[in-house]
Amino acid sequence: MADILLAFKAGRAFRRENTNTVEPSPVKGAIILTAGEDGLFHFTWKNRTTGVVDEDLILFPSDASFVKVSGRTYVLKFSSSNQRHFFWLQDASTARDEEFVNNINKLLEDPEADLIWNTAASTSQPQASTSTQATSSTAPISSTAPLIPPEQLAQLQALLSGQRSPAAPEYSLTDILTPANLTPLFNSHPELIPTLFPHLPPDLPTPPSAEALQRIINSPQFRSAVSNFDQALRTGMLGELVRALGLPEEAGTGIEPFLRAVQAQADKDRSSGGSEDRMDTD
Amino acid sequence: MEEGNDDSHGWNLTESDPGVFTELLKTLGVPLIVDDLYSLDPESLAALQPLHALIFLFKWISTSGDGPSATSGGEYDRDFPGFFAHQVVNNACATLAVLNALGNIPSLTTGPQLAELNSFTTGMDPQTRGMVITSADWLREAHNSLTPPNAISLDGLGLPKSSEDAYHFVVYLPIMGSLYELDGLKQFPVRHGSYETSGEGWVKKARETIERRIATYPGGALEFSLLALRDDPLPLLEAQLSSLQASNQHSEAAEIVVKISNENTKRQRWAFENSLRRHNHVGLAHALVAALAKAGKLENAKESAKKAMKDRIEVRRAKGADMSDD
């Protein structure tokens, strides 16, 4: 059984034909780097839903690098060829992104890098005698340093058996754009209501009004759209979309960056706006 | 779009709402509407006459136990001469059910595209018929026209809908003197036998068959609803109103006015909801967040959202539920 050197949740993304856009595939997966039974270094991508390893690349030291494209999207590129494989990090939390990426590049540079490679264990043990499978929780191979730190092993087990990590998002856009938050806003700042009219459906059978707005924010269609937008923002892939909204690309990398960017824009508009606005901030 | 994983063939999942169905019928050039049916009792059904078909939509919510037997009391009609197509793409299930119903209503007015599709597929076996229907671009566009427009990034992400499983649709209607059940996932139409033409007619047999079917599921294991495919009542009501007014029957006329008013209110609601269905709400969502920001209320909203999420997680944890929602 191959020794797993590093693994983390990632999905694939594919370049849309004839364009420069890379579109993420929502399929849950994992990038797994292994020292194979063949003695070679494998970069694999496994589908966490089906359990099937859909991609298996053999890499030579310093041939490949894992480079950030934008947000949480990365590309595996090669100096030896024009091959490009795009991936996006799927862990709910971004806290370990940098760590994964640094480690992966270390290994791509040198598969025997100090990180988690134990040469004594992997080269001297014939595969058959290794009683461990990667998902086993017993110390993998050697009685010296464990091949994989226990904390990572637990996460790896969960990952390979298709479960998600326990990290949950801190908050959701669907809990921000609630009638409970928005109705008081309409009451206290009625002057903001007309600013929303241009965004209502153009074929709405009734003319734009505060009442129509109330109906819309309570509707299942709107709430479903907000939920979708929330999930889409979480993937960090919305750089292009938010630019179309007049926001910087950074705003498409997550919920927090999005809210920050919108607040920044509102503050900028306010400070460059009329004097009435300035009076509000006293 | 993702490679290789997409078997929706471009058909979006639609809501199973009467307003959505009725809009589809309008696009097909068919003068029928679809209404919610809350009860199968004789009065409710009589109020919807002329009634052409009942649509039973359901999903199992319990994974344990099998469903009822394949023909649930009827028998396969392997020589069925009418219109029957197999469901080839899951997301097309609602439209396919409607087509299976329409294809068996005699002397039905339809638009030219549907007429051509029907005549083109005459004599085809159900599987081929299903495939031809599913490849009709104009039909797919009509079907998709009531799903949210695909903002590029949102589409590519293929975000899961809140209830991932589509409802399954089964049509019950009278054909050649028997009650038939048309289920696109079954190999053949199911004939449930003849019905008395007097009194309630076929709907009585339909009620019995459907109630028997519902009773075969363990309690609470079935989530279902019923829709009625019927003549558009407005033209008839308006004609009735004119004639009652002309003959000075004012109290009867007043009753009709109320019915017309109720019907119009319902249509307005459908039109409002359909306009929301077609709309890309991202701009509005952004504008609302911006409005909160301008009013200095965004921080508070964020804090209350954090609390809401925490509470939700606590509740789930207390229930010992699966924590795997990202």
UniProtKB/TrEMBL annotation, chain A:
It holds the Pfam family RPN13_C. Residues 122-145 are annotated as: Disordered. Residues 1-111 form the Pru domain. Keywords: Cytoplasm, Nucleus, Proteasome. Its main location: cytoplasm. It comes from the Eukaryota. Gene3D superfamilies: 1.10.2020.20, Proteasomal ubiquitin receptor Rpn13/ADRM1. Residues 163-272 form the DEUBAD domain. This is Adhesion regulating molecule. One of its GO terms (molecular function) is proteasome binding. GO terms for cellular component: cytoplasm; nucleus; proteasome regulatory particle, lid subcomplex. InterPro entries: DEUBAD_dom, Rpn13/ADRM1, Rpn13/ADRM1_Pru, Rpn13/ADRM1_Pru_sf, RPN13_DEUBAD, RPN13_DEUBAD_sf. It is found in: Cytoplasm; Nucleus.
Automatic annotation (TrEMBL), chain B:
Keywords: Hydrolase, Protease, Thiol protease, Ubl conjugation pathway. One of its GO terms (biological process) is protein deubiquitination. Pfam families: Peptidase_C12, UCH_C. SUPFAM superfamilies: Cysteine proteinases. It comes from the Eukaryota. PANTHER family: UBIQUITIN CARBOXYL-TERMINAL HYDROLASE, UBIQUITIN CARBOXYL-TERMINAL HYDROLASE ISOZYME L5. InterPro entries: Papain-like_cys_pep_sf (IPR038765), Peptidase_C12_UCH (IPR001578), Peptidase_C12_UCH_sf (IPR036959), Ubiquitinyl_hydrolase_UCH37 (IPR017390), UCH_C (IPR041507). GO terms for molecular function: cysteine-type deubiquitinase activity. Its EC number is 3.4.19.12. Gene3D superfamilies: 1.20.58.860, Peptidase C12, ubiquitin carboxyl-terminal hydrolase (3.40.532.10). PROSITE patterns: UCH_DOMAIN. The record marks D183 as: Important for enzyme activity. Residues 301-326 are annotated as: Disordered. It catalyses: Thiol-dependent hydrolysis of ester, thioester, amide, peptide and isopeptide bonds formed by the C-terminal Gly of ubiquitin (a 76-residue protein attached to proteins as an intracellular targeting signal). This is Ubiquitin carboxyl-terminal hydrolase. Residues 10-231 form the UCH catalytic domain.
